[in-house]
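Next comes a single protein record:
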Amino acid sequence: MISRSHMTVDPLSRDRMLLVGHSLGDSELLDGLRVRYPELTIATCDSYLSGIAELARRPARAVVAYVDPSLTQLDNAVAGLREAAGQETKLVLCCRPESEPLARRVLASGADDYLLYPLETGELDAAIGYARLATTPGVELTAAPAASMAELAELSSVLAGIAEQPRVLLERIAELTRMAVGARGAMVVVEGATATSGEVAAKPAISTPLTSASGVIGQLSVGEHTEGPYAPGDTQKLTHYATVFSHILEAAAKQRQWRQLAVTDECSGLPNRRYLHERLDEILARAAAEHFHVTLLVFDIDDFKAYNDEYGHDAGDEILRVTGGLFRQHCREQDIVSRYGGDEFVVVFWDPEGPRVAGSRHPDCALAVLERFTEALRSQIFPCLGPSGEGHLTISGGLATYPWDASTRETLLKRADEALLAAKRAGKNRIFLIGQAHER
């Protein structure tokens, strides 16, 4: 699921109110709202589907949605609006007095409040938390084709999948496309990745491009209709969904970029502490279920502060970057090398293929990596340190292994750190296992 709080949003796009539903589009109401809220752009959509599409394109400060008792699966429609709007946006339902029980019931689908129609602006002020904002230019909206409640429910599922793996999102888009136009099969292709739903047609009956600000990013296509030829409205609906999906895919791509930045150390380019904690918890949970070992190495650069003081922080950053990259080069593919903070690094050695042979000692693989790394470190040139830089850097570290030395992330890190401190006290330039030393 994606939250609008995690997205880069133009602040001006928050300075508007979106009205969803035919009964909220009458001119008298619109005129009154524009007078009441002169700093807000008042935009309208005639259906929940077009409201979801518009919110995927551009957020709003508040969404007011009309509760139509003739709509089935209204809960899913409201949930879809909430997914598209994000948690920061106020979602207020509006109903006629006879529909109040229905509005009260669907509040649990994600709405913040409900009001009786015709709207009282004072009540609306309180419901949306109104405050005076900067003026926003108007927004031109286009009407969306009619959509079933089943489509809205599936669209809610698509929106909830923004944070999942790209393939899962594409599969949900393909399924919704097939359902929406009644096709025997649908296919979505985005930047080389493909997902299908239903029959795979050798030649598509209808196709439309998926686009972003940078141009075409893919294609949405369907095979033959299940009940004969397609109607003009089907083509229009496919084009409309292509626009909706393009915005969703763009948001998903941005979220993946932000997620990557959030778990990457800016200086070294390695995974950071946040990533290490999340991934180590996952690995230890799997190790507990599958009965394999996990070894943790905590190491730092000996006398790093002296290098920083003598050569400057730029030189210190280069040492961290080169040292971390060098260790990554000598690790196995599945092992995790992360910068934990300062000049301290944490490495996770594990075997995703499953339990190791009975009686094997998992730290052996870590020591083999350390042999390769320290040998490379002896000949590594650090230009920032000048002619005397080659071979001068050393590291000290501590090793601890699950489940022998600890059973949780916190205790495993603590035991490895204790071994590191013992290595420092013993004279540096060495690696300590719990209970024994391994000098480099």
In short: The longest strand covers residues 215-222. The domain at 273-439 is CATH 3.30.70.270 (Alpha-Beta Plaits). The radius of gyration is 29 Å. Residues 1-13, 132-144, 356-360 have pLDDT under 50 and may be disordered.
